[in-house]
Amino acid sequence: MPGKRARRHLSQLGEFERDLIIGMKTKGWSTRRVADQVDRSECAVRNCWVQWTREGTHVRKTGSGATRKTTRRDGRMIVWQALVDPKVTRSTILADAGLAIVPQKISRHIAEANLKSKHPFRALPLTPEHRQLRLQWC
User: Fold this and answer.
1) What are phi and psi of 8, to 5 degrees?
2) Which of 4, 44, 94, 110 is most enclosed, with most CB atoms within 10 A?
3) HEC states along 79-114?
């Protein structure tokens, strides 16, 4: 219906929302009533309920999703390179690793290791004295 706002689908359901859906459906609520209550589409509610009744679970199966392109060893090597040389670029790490992955994966491995990006200063920050001298030139 054009007046209703778009609702999110099942894959975006949080664990709390899934628990609510299961609880309400178990109590005998209709799919439409549950969908209105949790502000989701009837399809998402129905899919969640079917998965619960068929498999006894409402969470994603382990191992679902895309297969990993890197091993744990590859991930450790990526993090190690970032630790050894903080100024190394993603493309350099990618070339050294010889992996067929996208550069964003390098960033993800580094972020998962709680490392921050270390960009060198382009110029040293001015001291208050230098700042004052610079303002006098204008």
Assistant:
1) -80, 155
2) 44
3) HHHHHHCCCCCHHHHHHHHCCCCCHHHHHHHHHHCC
Q: Pick the closest to residue 47 from 3, 5, 13 (CA basis).
A: 13
Q: Is 128 helix (H, G, I), strand (E, B) or coil?
A: helix
Q: What is the pLDDT of residues 58-96, one digit of tens each?
A: 555 566 667 777 888 888 888 898 888 878 888 888 888
Confidence of residue 14 (pLDDT cuts 50, 70, 90): confident
Cβ partners under 8 Å of residue 32, min gap 6: 42
Within 10 Å of residue 22's Cβ, how many Cβ atoms?
18
As a whole number of angstroms, the distance between CA 39 and CA 21 comes to 11
